[in-house]
TrEMBL record:
Matching CDD domains: HTH_XRE
Protein name: XRE family transcriptional regulator
Transmembrane regions: none
Pfam families for this protein: DUF5753, HTH_31
Length: 298
């Protein structure tokens, strides 16, 4: 699938095809029209701010934690009726939140990341470096669930929706013209028993199976390399026909998707710097196989 500049699909997916400045972020280039009504979380945050209350202060008033207030404001926790009654009373609202309650949904991915699947879908080449976990496009369902369940405040509903969203992204490999995918993993990704030994063995066997595909390359950067440019964090780069290259960056607090030319250049140079330390493909596969066998016999 190739996204053409100026098409309805191009505008819908918020890519940077027809922007006057391809160096702008996706949010800057294509701001979708505002919704007819703000979300529950936005109304709550605005009312709390207008009342001069921090999340901690509001939490103390309504007898809940600061983190719960934050999760509801960010759309990561569905508010209950009793919560809504309490905060409306505390903030002096007159049904503003109640009117939005029936339509509230839990966001299964961060807002900033919602743009990236469309970038993946149009890409003919994707390169990624992951120092901590297996890349989302290569995760098994059980591994993904274990990763997502570790998110503080995660509900069962949010976990299920997030897992479903992550697995749906993997359909890019089932296209008639799947992207070339080059994954660099730190060796510690193999050694961390996410979800337990059985889940991890299954995950590593899945990596080996995916690496058999002609469009997928998986290489491991050994631990004994020491310090590399990769320790600054994980990232992905996507290249598509007819539109600027894009990168996805993520840290503990937030992330970004951008086509800014200088940012893309710097991340591409960083990828190349990390790649030179990676094991060759055959050695990487042997290492993955050895670690998987250890999980099986532990």
């Amino acid at each position: 699938m190739t996204v053409r500049a100026g098409t309805d699909l191009c505008r819908h997916c918020l890519c940077a095809c027809s922007a006057e400045d391809p160096g702008m972020t996706l949010d800057e280039q294509f701001q979708p029209p505002p919704p007819e009504t703000p979300t529950y979380g936005v109304v709550l945050k605005n009312a709390r701010t207008a009342a001069g209350l921090s999340q901690v202060a509001l939490g103390n008033i309504v007898s809940c934690s600061e983190s719960l207030i934050g999760l509801v404001e960010r759309g990561q926790r569905k508010p209950t009726k009793s919560f809504t009654i309490a905060v409306e009373s505390a903030l002096g609202l007159n049904g503003d939140l109640f009117r939005l309650l029936p339509n509230t949904r839990v966001m299964s991915v961060p807002k900033w990341f919602s743009e990236w699947p469309a970038v993946e879908e149009s890409a003919h080449t994707i390169r990624t470096w992951q120092p901590l976990v297996v890349p989302g496009l290569l995760q098994t369902e059980r591994y993904a669930r274990a990763i997502l369940a570790a998110e503080p405040g995660a509900t069962e509903q949010w976990i299920e929706e997030a897992v479903e969203t992550r697995l749906r992204r993997q359909s890019v490999f089932e296209r008639n013209d799947p992207p070339m995918y080059w994954a660099l993993l730190d060796e510690c990704v193999l050694l961390r028993p996410v979800g337990g030994k059985e889940v991890m063995r299954e995950q590593l066997e899945h990596l080996l199976a995916m690496a058999e595909r002609p469009n997928i390359s998986i290489q491991v950067v050994p631990l004994d390399v020491g310090s590399t440019a990769g320790l600054l964090g994980g990232f992905s780069l996507a290249r598509s026909e007819g539109i600027p290259d894009h990168i996805s960056l993520e840290d503990a607090a937030h992330g970004s998707v951008t086509a800014h030319e200088e940012a893309v250049r710097r991340v591409s140079v960083r990828y190349d710097a990390i790649h030179k330390w990676a094991h060759p493909i055959h050695m990487s596969q042997r290492l993955i196989r050895e670690v998987a066998a250890r999980y099986e016999h532990q």
